[in-house]
Amino acid sequence: MIEPSIQTSIKLKNKAKTKRLLPVGKTFSTLVLIFFAILFLFPFYWVITGAFKLQIVATTIPPEWFPLKPTMQNWVDLFKNPVGRWTFNSFFISFSEMVLICITASLAGYVLAKKRFPGRNLIFWMFIAAMALPKQVILVPLFTMLADMGWVDTYQGLIFPAVGWPFGVFLMKQFAQTIPDELIEAAKMDGCSEFRIFTSIILPMLKPAIGALAIFTFIASWNDYFMQLIMTRSSEMQTLPLGVAAMQSEFTTNYGVLMAGAALSSIPMIAIFLAFQKYFTQGITMGAVKG
Questions:
Q1: What tens digit of pLDDT does each residue of 105-149 get?
Q2: Each residue of 241-255: pLDDT tens digit?
Q3: Do you find a cis peptide bond into 62, omega within 30 degrees of 0?
Q4: pTM of structure
Q5: What is the distance between the alpha carbons of residues 259 and 69, in angstroms, rounded to a whole number?
Q6: 173, CA 20 to 30 Å: which among 19, 25, 150, 157?
């Protein structure tokens, strides 16, 4: 038998050892996070600094890690193009898709999570299957349908095909399942209509998921180069990614101007993320509480 005093001494030694190890582990974790943060931020840093380098400096080897002689010429050359029109098109399309997807996905997610009707599970699994379907598979029939409707090279042709985003419905459905049924039942007993229940109870509780979905949707739409390339014909309907890509020529490319365009393209995405960041982590984690 170990005497009580010896047991106490062993416990104190173990506790002291644990306290010494905790700062070491915390410091190591912090260093790892800093390393990966620098790693992921470096491309953004390279684009920003490249936007202020002359062509000969931007392509020099070894690279110039920081512009020693910064210039605004790249930005002057960039704005010789209809950048304002490109930016408006990109923002209008992305913002419209973001709003419409958040509305339709929240409605569909609420119905699939809280309403009981025949075929509910089948519909949900159809959305799950659609998430695995590449966009290129449906491109030809989608383009044919939009051409028959006269929607090619129009805003509606760029916006409405993305409204029924399966991932948005999946995210909202998973999150809506965490809302207690008792709240809905209490609202019905108080005489609330379905519209009042959705707007006054469901939507406020879906804010974290809506914030996360808004970020995903806006970034996906802003960077949807492939769909915008297929659905546009005129220069007036070009978006910012299309316009920046069109500045590349067959024989030479001004990388400084391209980096200036890429830096300009990143500003709205950063702004949207900062606007909804407080909902982002909560929105992508709470929906996984229930299956």
A1: 999 888 888 888 888 888 888 888 888 878 778 888 888 888 888
A2: 888 877 776 556 777
A3: yes
A4: 0.77
A5: 16
A6: 157
